[in-house]
Structures are given as structure tokens and as C-alpha cells.
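Figure 2 data, in text form.
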Amino acid sequence: MTPEVATERYDRIGAVYARHRRPDPRLQAQIDRALGDARRVVNVGAGTGSYEPVGRRVVAVEPSAVMISQRRTPGTPVVQTVAERLPFEDDSFDAAMAIFTVHHWTDPGAGLRQMARVAPRVVVLTFDPVVHNTFWLVQDYLPESNALASTNGLGPEAVAETIGADDIEVVPVPADCIDGFNWACWRRPAAYLDPEVRACISGLALLDDDLVAARMEKLRSDLVDGTWDERHGALMDHDTIDGGLRLVIRH
């Protein structure tokens, strides 16, 4: 997949990102802590600007014009390019961050090395594919998602090795998470019946629309007759879950 194809992907699936992919304050706090005292930050694969820190000098890097048009912080400078081609001098920033994006890059290793080149501190929010792919939504209804290249990207250990990270943190997913990524509604299954919610989850949006619609009708039926509750009702006893999210940090 070329960088141009990767950009077209988000031009297609990113139309309603600003409505459903909102930064959750608990994830935001963990990311902010990882950024430490960095004042100059480059946000690579910045999308609509979720999780960009407040009170720091941020430059966003984003290839998709559709995503740029929905940015939450319109005053932030945006460079329209891909991670593999960062047009900055070595150590131009105090920190480089990449949130929910590395698994969509054409050459993740090259992009990560670029981040490590332009900043001494690197913060990457990614996921452990093994944990990620145990999600009930995938296992019970859409196992085809596991075959997507973006669902089986670099694991956090490989990311850490590439950037020379010294820390990997688990990022718990709260039951009332307001960001609409794949695991966000793990305790609110009816949310996945909304086509707009699904459109903001790449692991669903990249599958055949008719296939996903049919499987969501099965989920709807299972919610009505109690099948889902029989299988997964114990989740209601938990306030957070490990959905595989990992924060990889080079301090």
C-alpha cells in the first residue's frame, strides 16, 4: 500500500470522525504525562487533532485533507504529508507523538524512525494485536477484521525496539469512554448498531458494508433475546478493561 492509498483510506472513512472520535480525558491525561515537560511537540498522523496537548507549541502532520478540515484546533500549524517523509531537521522538537495511527502507515518502521530522528522524546499510542483481536465484537460477529493488515500491525514491543523506547504502559479503556475507537463501547454493545459509530472504526469501515450490516443485525437479535448478555454480561461488573492499548514511550 502506497502513502497515497493510505491517505485515500482516511479521506473515505474519516468523514464523521469529529463527531465520534473525541479525546477521552483519562487517555489524554496519560498521554500528557508521557510527554513530560516537552514544549515543542509534533503530532504525526494527527487526524482531527484529538489528544494534542494544550499549552504546548504543536505542529500537526496529517496527509488527509478530510481529516484536516475537521481539526479541533484550527490555529495549529498543519503539514500535509506522511510519517515516512517528515520535512523537519533532526531534533526540531522536544517530543514526537503518534496516536491511533501507526497501524495505518505504509512503512511503520520508517515513520517511527523519522519520529525518533526529529525529537528525543517519542510517545506512541498503539495496540497489542493479540489482546486487541480477542474483542467480543470481533470474535463473535466480525472475525474477518482479524485478516486486515491494519489489525495486525507492529506490536508494542516492535514499536519500542524501533524507537528505542524504555517504557510500555497499559492504557485501560473506561466503560464510559467517549472516544469512538474499536474497544470504546465494550460495555455498551448497542452502540455498534449505529452506522456512524462503525464508520469511525477502521477495522469495521474497511470491511464489506453488506457483511457488516448483516452481522450487526445478528448482534441486534442477540441483544434482544439475551444471547449477548449470557455470553458477556459479566463485563457489566467492570469499570475498565484491557483492550490491548499500549503507550510506548522513549523518555
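Caption note: The beta strands are 40-44, 57-61, 78-79, 95-99, 121-127, 167-170, 173-174, 240-241, 245-250.
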